[in-house]
Amino acid sequence: MVPLIIDLAGRHVVIFGGGAVGLRKATYFCREAEVTVVSRSFLPEFSGLDVRCLEADLSDMDDDALAVLLDGAFLVVAATSDEETNNHIGRTAREAGALFNNARGDGGDTLIPSVVRGEEYLIAVSTGGASPAVPRFLREHLEAAYPYLDAMIRVEARLRDALKQTVPDQAKRAAVLRAVLHDPDAWTWLADGEDRAYERIQERYM
Ligand SMILES: C[C@@]1(CC(=O)O)c2cc3[nH]c(cc4nc(cc5[nH]c(cc(n2)[C@H]1CCC(=O)O)[C@@](C)(CC(=O)O)[C@@H]5CCC(=O)O)C(CC(=O)O)=C4CCC(=O)O)c(CCC(=O)O)c3CC(=O)O
Ligand SMILES: NC(=O)C1=CN([C@@H]2O[C@H](COP(=O)(O)OP(=O)(O)OC[C@H]3O[C@@H](n4cnc5c(N)ncnc54)[C@H](O)[C@@H]3O)[C@@H](O)[C@H]2O)C=CC1
């Protein structure tokens, strides 16, 4: 498997299962995709999400009815508590040409990672399904370890532009940018605001 960052704007994602896992997957996708959730029951939190909820019992549904639900789907997620039902959804999704993620059962062709996201960056962590507690642990660790990562990225971008004007040697520019990242003072200065930190970094490195 290889990581991809996909724009889901205008794409249709169909999720099966209205429990805690279906809710997490729906929350993950509904920030940009058009999400439909199909389930025989829904946690109350679904009413606060921008998703379409369709009440249906898959045990009463034939293959044609299931295929209609998947028509036009870009990605299908199976998150019911029944493994056989999830695998059946997966086979139908493949026939429909949609990507498939299985929360429990035979592996689909996509996995959903833990995501650490700022305004300027995105980090996705996966163990390929071996131990999902580990991506969550790493996400929490990274969130706590780098509260000023967005500010640092913006300061580094400004510095990079300034260095391009003043330092012709690329290796020297790279060394300065790396030194700032490794300078504990630079991270401390960011707590007092981005502009002030940039001034202090300029004083030390330019
Ligand atoms: C294969 C995968 C399929 C998929 O869903 O895509 C999958 C499968 C399963 N997870 C299970 C359990 C747990 N999952 C989590 C957490 C997360 N699981 C996520 C992804 C994935 N989980 C995919 C690959 C992950 C990878 O790449 O390594 C995350 C990253 C993203 C998300 O789901 O949003 C999200 C963290 C989000 C965050 O907080 O950052 C925790 C931890 C916790 O909740 O504290 C536990 C309890 C501990 C444990 O059991 O390990 C079980 C039931 C096992 C059982 O019944 O015993 C199965 C099914 C099975 O293994 O059969
Ligand atoms: N991938 C992941 O991140 C994780 C996966 N899991 C696994 O995912 C599965 C779902 O977990 P939860 O959401 O906690 O379970 P849950 O039992 O709370 O929710 C399951 C949902 O599926 C629906 N459902 C079940 N059979 C159905 C059918 N025939 N037709 C229509 N809807 C049906 C139920 O109504 C319910 O809304 C479990 O099997 C669990 O082991 C658990 C933790 C994390």
From TrEMBL:
Protein name: precorrin-2 dehydrogenase
Keywords, in A-Z order: NAD, Oxidoreductase, Porphyrin biosynthesis
Pathway recorded for this protein: Porphyrin-containing compound metabolism; siroheme biosynthesis; sirohydrochlorin from precorrin-2: step 1/1
Key word NAD present: yes
Gene3D superfamilies linked: NAD(P)-binding Rossmann-like Domain, Siroheme synthase, domain 2
Top enzyme class: oxidoreductase
NCBIfam families named among the record's database cross-references: cysG_Nterm
Keyword NAD: yes
Catalytic reaction annotation: precorrin-2 + NAD(+) = sirohydrochlorin + NADH + 2 H(+)
EC number: 1.3.1.76
Organism field: Methanofollis formosanus
GO molecular function: ferrochelatase activity; precorrin-2 dehydrogenase activity
Domain of life: Archaea
Alphabetical GO biological process terms: siroheme biosynthetic process
